[in-house]
Amino acid sequence: MGVRELARVGVDIGGTFTDFAVEFGGRCHSAKVLTTTDAPERGVLDGLAGLMRELDLAPGKIGLIVHGTTLATNALIERRGALIAFVTTEGFRDIVEIRGEDRYEQYDLTIDMPRPLVPRNLRFVVPERIDARGQVRRPFDEDAAASVAEAIKATRVEAVAVGFLHSYVNPDHERRFADILACSMPELPVTLSCEVSPEMREYERFSTACANAYVQPRMGAYLDALENGLKSRGFDCPLLLMQSSGGLTTVRTARRFPVRLIESGPAGGAIFAAHVATRSGAREVLSFDMGGTTAKICLIDSAKAQTSRSLEAARIYRFKKGSGIPLRIPVIEMVEIGAGGGSIARVDDLNRITVGPDSAGSEPGPACYGAGGSSATVTDADLVTGKIDAAAFAGGRIALDTEAAAAAIERAVAARLELPTEIAAFGISEIVDENMANAARVHSIESGKDVRERTIIAFGGAAPLHVARVAESLGVDRFIVPKGAGVGSAVGFLRAPISYEVVRSLYMRLDDFDAEAINGMLSEMGAAARAVVEPAAFGRQLEETRVAYMRYVGQGHELAVPVPSRPMRQGDADVLEDAFAQEYRRQYSRIVPGMAIEMLTWALSVTVIGEDEVEFETQLRPLKSGLDGARHVLDPGSGSFSPVRVVRRDTLERGSRVPGPALIVEDETTTLVTEGFDAEVDAFGSIVCSRGAAGSAST
Hints:
31% of the residues lie in helices and 27% in strands. The chain has 16 helices and 36 strands.
């Protein structure tokens, strides 16, 4: 394997920090800066410029920039998106408010549901109707559509979402309305549900279209500012965006479908964890990504993360399923909870310590940042309990104020519960650790898997500090903190493939199999996916994979079944039936003999292949402060402070062993090795911690 001549850059904007990873000459260098919330591109450009100076790299030496961002997610969570209109079939104006039949609290009579992204006065209807087979039951009313277009023109909307009934089968009416709207407002962004989510289940399709329109103006403006800023500073290389599915796409596609970027950062983290799992030989892995705002947990088997066709964004009730905005997009499946370094701690009406889901973010940040924040956070608790060195945080670039952290915890928790400040801080850490452990436990059970048999791979700025206690709670005996853990998602971006997935609904029973209809649809899907991927492939070979979502007739949920990447033949009904039976048996341990099988939805992805992957080694940044020796850390067993050995990670060699308890410090994070675990540095420089590991010779 050769070494690339040009450097590649991964940039991940989080709620608190913006992370950088630069791969050049077979080595990967990293950095973290605080996110500039008011203008996120400024943090990217300034941080990149600083890293380029540090590495003595000119902009012309950068061959590719891969970017992921939380901007789309935050716009939905904070309700800071565009003012949008929604146009739908007459009679369905309120479907985005009625939602489905499900309730996240079945017996709560005062239940609050998420407000629609579109106010009722900006929802418009057009007389028209297409049935589930694509036949026109009521012709499209041209005059009514023109009147709706004029009514929209009289508003101040910044974007429009269009969702007509059954447009996933026949998109003619949606496209016709878009043409009418373009005649009077050619610059207005328009999202068609038949393009952003061409699947059955109208509420989810309409919700996805509205979410895409809601974030489109802000994401478009941000991408324009970032592109212009990069060009003005001499960066003339391609810019690719990370998608929630784990594939990369072009800026043009990202502008058109920004909803696909909702979980771009966490997707990069899952790719990073899958790569670490492959190198370490771990087949069953729990990916644990804890940053400044949230914690993300993902199951990875045989180096492949679980995937899904849907997710729920901006949950309003303790991140409970059913309380958010459903989106039908390809996504790496994970559970995300409001547990990060900046998560705010308080005491509730029952005198219980609660943590999150709200966060202090980067501005003003935790109280210990000294930037005006007054809320007690997880980072403040970690500082007060001794797990963080105030002088060595972020390599010494951010000086922390221990007294401010203690004062915030005293006000928010200790005084309310009449506890010593240190014990209150310990309580905050224990609560957030148990919240994350419980999320991992539930996610594993829902997936039919035993979390206790897995290896945890921890990354993100805060995860290495908390992973040992999470592992103890889960009964897991082994966890890994890889090199580059502090910027894991940004490193993962550099290992992501250029890829795009197209999903379409085509209902068919296996006993009525129509190979010609399937081939026609798959051909159109392949062409659509290639049109997105080819501009970024630079002539490299493309690979196509196909999946059918199948179920027994009468069931409510489908299973993903692989489909051969060749033209379908009539005899392939038996092939699909066997594949479905195999997957159903794997998921539920048995099949249902004699039951008819149906196919609802098809997914086709095109991925760039043919490039030799260049292995690169992540470099550890030498610490500018923080010394070997010992630090007093609150002991969970005794409730008192005791000395814990402190070891600099950049001094550890492969094969070095560190018995717990210990703190292994580096520029971007710190790994807490609790008593009962022993740490060893493997051949790739990862810290591998095992419970009761044999041999505990110190370094």
